[in-house]
Amino acid sequence: MSGHSKWATTKHKKAAIDAKRGKMFAKLIKNVEVAARMGGGDPGGNPTLYDAIQKAKKSSVPNDNIDRAVKRGSGAETGGADYQTIMYEGYGPAGVAMLIECLTDNKNRAAMEVRTAMTRNGGSLADPGSVSFLFHRKGVVVVPAAQDARTVDEDDVLEATLEAGADAVEDIGDAFEVVSEATDLVAVRTALQAAGIDYDSAEAEFRPDLKVELDRDAAGKMLRLVDVLEDLDDVQNIYANFDISDDVMAELEDA
Question: In the chain, what are the domain boundaries?
Fold first, then answer.
């Protein structure tokens, strides 16, 4: 999912639209609750919780919902579920390598739903370790180009984050992705804050070492599979080593 492709820009915009529609609210709240359970309910001492709250707020999740999720996760309020993180590996159309990250309170349900979605849409699950070696965990901070008082460019973002560990700044249209080692994520996010640059999200992601360029037919099938998987309640993140050119993405959007 290259930062310099029409697909990356479309994905970023789609996530924002889905969040505003409320489709992603439950998944964002789940992230907050799990972060609070794993590291405590104080965002000041729990960077993962801090970033989960930031992403939820930027996606217009109501503060009351966020507060209740923190309380459930930290044990200050009853009703929290016992969520587990499960990573499924598989292949999509055209042999695309995929990692499907689930956060679930029912492993059997998650496995069945992911398997069904894959097999019905041109994909298949694979054994653990089959594709994970093709990915490395990276820190990714999304910075909107339009800030409250100004517009930032690629040089502004790079200058603010280079010494904090940024490896690259990728232009995805109306925003930039700052990529670093996962261990430098908090330092990069903190450097942006120190420079007065706002950000939408900061989280660790799995990024592929090499990407597969898809033609129109394979790209259409791949995007359908991603849509079906994203509709599953237990699926939190999908990582894949495909890329779609501007021309092919334009053809799909016009179809």
Answer: 6-74, 84-131+211-254, 134-208
| 178 Cα distance to chain centroid | 13
Q: Please state which CATH number belongs to domain 134-208.
A: 3.30.70.980
Task: Provide the β-strand partners of residue 143.
Answer: 176
CA separation for the pair 83, 103 (Å, rounded): 6
pLDDT digits (tens, 9 = 90+) for 82-123: 889 999 999 999 999 999 999 999 999 999 999 999 999 999
Let me know if the fold of 84-131+211-254 is the same as that of 134-208: yes
- In CATH, the number for domain 84-131+211-254 is 3.30.70.980
Reported as a single tens digit per residue, the pLDDT across 170-227 is 988 889 999 999 999 999 999 999 999 999 999 999 999 999 999 999 999 999 999 8
Total length of the chain: 255
Architecture of domain 6-74: Orthogonal Bundle (1.10)
